[in-house]
Each structure stands twice: as structure tokens, then as C-alpha cells.
Amino acid sequence: MTLLERLNDGGEVFLTHTNVGGNAVLRVAIGAPATTQAHVERVWALLGEHHDFLATDFAAAAAEREAQRAAERAAAERAAAEQRAAEEAVTEAAATDSAMAEREAAEPAG
């Protein structure tokens, strides 16, 4: 359960989320005429009460993003290695074909 779900399930507040610059952020709408300073302070207090959970949640999300980046880097490295191997195979095949053609040209007609 994420912090967002935890706070929303509590029924006191309703938060939403978005991404800003690739980072997940929580959104709190405080522009309604009925919103008071007490409401804003309560949201802030709830966020503070869930500090440990918040830190764990963000750490897990950061670890997940890093694992995804590592997987993407590994895939790119594998693709580059496969491309190099394919290019080397083509070069080697061309060199073998060239060497065979030179030998055939050098052999006396028989």
C-alpha cells in the first residue's frame, strides 16, 4: 500500500499524484473556499505521522527506478555486443572469402 493509498483510505484527506520532472509527487488541493488553515495543518501532520512509511515508499520507488535503468543499460550493452559480434562475423566471413579467392586465383589451372 502506498502512502497515497494509506492517507486516502484514512478518510480524512484526499490526495492525488502526478509526475514532475520524472519524480512522483503528491498533490493536495487547498484552493476550495471551504478549506481552512486547520485542514492544511492536518494534511501536513498526517504526512509527518507517516514519515517512516513515506521514506520507505520513496526508497522503494527509487530502487525500482534504478533497477529499471540498470535493466535498460544491460539490454543496451547486450544489443551493442550482439551488433559488434555480427559485424565481426561479417568481416571475418569477407576475409575468409577473400583469402579463398586469392588461393583459387593462385592455384594453377588443372
Compact description:
Residues 69-87, 100-110 have a biased composition (Basic and acidic residues). The chain is mainly α and 110 residues long. It has three helices and two strands.
Please explain how this structure is put together.
The chain has helices spanning 3-10, 37-49, 51-106; strands at residues 16-20, 23-27. Strand 1 (16-20) and strand 2 form a beta hairpin. By secondary structure, the chain is mainly alpha-helical. The termini are far apart. The chain has a two-stranded antiparallel sheet with strand order 1-2. It has three helices and two strands. It is rod-shaped. The model has no long low-confidence stretch (mean pLDDT 86). Residues 69-87, 100-110 have a biased composition (Basic and acidic residues). InterPro entries: PyrdxlP-dep_Trfase_small. Residues 69-110 are annotated as: Disordered.
Mean pLDDT: 86
Q: List the secondary-structure elements in sequence, H or E.
A: HEEHH
Strand order of the biggest β-sheet = 1-2
Q: Strand percentage, roughly?
A: 5-15%
Radius of gyration: 31 Å
SS field, number of helical segments: 3
Q: Major β-sheet, in short? A: 2 strands, antiparallel
Region (Disordered): 69-110
InterPro entries: PyrdxlP-dep_Trfase_small
Biased composition (Basic and acidic residues): 69-87, 100-110
